[in-house]
Design goal:
Length: 286
């Protein structure tokens, strides 16, 4: 039986082919994972030379971490966790309800609503910066200002067009017979959504969870518009501030960059199964 690779080429056999594959895989690993490993090693190396690339330090130390703590890096990290926790929870909730309405309900103008949601994904952050800052300074109807608070960083990310689109397309593939059976058993609208439809959307929830976490965690423009005091900085914004400080060494910046990278990696590892199922699912089979 002939085995083919993802490129459609016949898989070579023999000892030289195995050696060639090992060399290729090692090279790919060094290209993609090498900088991350160098970042981790540099963060815990006492003396860091930014011009040298090393994966094998002479000695590991927590000196850079201690100096980073003195620079309030952990406080910035906590702010980032608060923003991403509140923002992601709201984003998943809004995306699930919006996707259910657009996928399972028929109402006039649903196509227009979906087009408008997609249109929001085409606008860069720089275009939205000015109107967003005006809205946050004077929230319509409520007439309150969210500038200078973490809430002002959470509310704008509560709805994201990409997450709504993923949930909408995934929910369209769920057989309607499941809902009809639940309604015949006396289930109400909310119970159908919560106990029938939403459990089948776990792969899609994994996808929007990873992408939503990364999107919120990497936000730079939004904290820049909202924060009025360094105590309100999130970690990505704080790294830019630390970089402009001549008294901060490269080791502190590497520790901050490592702490900024680590949560995204852990989030992907925690949700990778649902993420892969969500990307490969073309339909849901009851």
């Amino acid at each position: 039986m002939r085995n083919e690779t993802a490129l459609g080429l016949a898989e070579a056999r023999g000892p030289w082919a195995r050696v060639l594959r090992s060399v290729l895989y090692t090279a790919l690993f060094m290209v993609f994972a090498g900088p991350l490993l160098a970042l981790m090693v540099g963060a815990f190396t006492p003396t860091v030379d930014p011009t040298q690339f090393t994966l094998w330090p002479d000695r590991l130390s927590l000196d850079n971490l201690e100096r980073a703590v003195d620079r309030n890096v952990l406080d910035y990290l906590l702010n980032s966790f608060l923003v991403v926790g509140g923002g992601l929870a709201l984003q998943v909730l809004v995306s699930a309800f919006a996707g259910y309405a657009l996928a399972r309900k028929r109402f006039r103008g649903s196509a227009v609503v979906l087009v408008l949601i997609l249109a929001t994904m085409m606008l860069p952050e720089e275009v939205l910066a000015v109107p967003l800052s005006v809205l946050l300074a004077d929230l319509p109807l409520l007439h309150v200002s969210l500038v200078g608070s973490l809430v002002g960083m959470i509310v704008p990310v509560a709805a994201w067009g990409f997450s709504i689109l993923v949930m909408t397309e995934f929910m369209k593939e769920i057989p309607k017979e499941l809902e009809e059976s639940a309604r015949l058993d006396g289930a109400g609208e909310f119970r159908v959504f919560w106990q029938v439809v939403l459990p089948l959307c776990r792969p899609a929830l994994g996808v929007i969870g990873i992408f939503g976490f990364t999107m919120i965690w990497d936000q730079y423009m939004l904290p820049l518009l909202v924060a009025t005091d360094p105590a309100q900085f999130t970690l990505p914004l704080a790294l830019r501030s630390l970089r402009s400080d001549d008294q901060v060494g490269i080791g502190v910046l590497l520790v901050g960059a490592f702490l900024a990278m680590l949560p995204s990696v852990l989030a992907f590892l925690a949700l990778q199964r649902s993420f892969i199922r969500g990307l490969t699912s073309g339909a849901v089979k009851g």
